[in-house]
Amino acid sequence: MSEEGRLESEVGRRVRAALTLAVNQARIAGGVVLVARDGEVIAQEAAGFANRALAIPIHIGTCFRLASVTKPVVSLATMKLVDLGALSLHEPIKRWLPYFRPSLTDGRVPEITLHHLLSHSSGLSYRFQEPTGSEYEQLGISDGLDCSGLSLEENLRRLATAKLQFEPGTAWRYSLATDVVGAIIERATGCALSDAIDELISGPLGLDSLAFYVQSESALAVPYADSTGQLMVMPEPAEVVPPEGVSAIRFSPQRVHTVGEFPSGGAGMVGAASDILKVLEVVRKDGAGFIKAELSLLMSAAHVGAGLRAQCDGWGFGYMGAVLTDPSVMKTPQRVGTVGWGGVYGHNWFFDPTNGLTVVSLTNTTWEGVGGRFPQDVRDAVYAAIG
Length: 387
Description:
By secondary structure, this protein is of the alpha+beta class. Helix content is 31%, strand content 17%.
């Protein structure tokens, strides 16, 4: 067996073992893991069930509710528009959204730019991160995961009424900023966000699974939650409190099947692992001819320093995810410059430019699939195999 064949076999074996163990221990209902090295897929594994009650297995092409795995897709679409000259990273967004002018607690109305939004340094937040009784709750702001009955503009008008948490550019807070970016894309292209993503991303890259709306429930993996200590089908609606969360995250699994729900640029898409891998590979490969190399490098640069704890110690934040600045802090085998993030329905992804690695892990179980042991098991399996 060639060295390439040996590596592919070993990565697949170790990843398959991590997946199988998680399924057998009922930590996840099922999942898909893809691993690419230097642009070649060296492992693609699927295990468990898309629907446990009906014993419908997950397969490599299974589509999932992506939650925040939507963000790198929308970020890449934004940078494509920057590449085309339609958007500017440092121009105030009031040009596109004149109604979106949130103020600070002292009443000042600062300028917010695309740079602030993409790097989550705008001063915005998420409702689930705010305490009970917060402005976000009082204003009925949607995090893009529930059935809200709101239009995108109405949700952003409500968001603009809430006070900013800090002066843009001075701190970091994960937020609804990518939903604001989605509205800017709509204004800049003159079409709905779903159509803009099709034109800017899916068509040119040959992707066929990404969508904000699907009619058939059987087209997606059934979502599960492990917050009670055992796997259960996520109810409609559902509230799940993360282990270190302030408030419950409000889910509506039916959202993606509901006509009229606004397209959430931060959490609203569905898709398959293979298409997410292709999106990530564009950035890992310095734009891959799709966008200019300097724009791709901006996407994976740490615009927010590790001192602001963009994910956890040793990580900063770029335009699409957290950026590793000090592997020793978290004792991770990933190299400096690794970019990664997750999705609250049970997903995790990262790419390590130094090792030429891209890993996509999609499961149908929250919290384990995004913030539990499983993502680390997959990471460690991959690095153990490549030595």
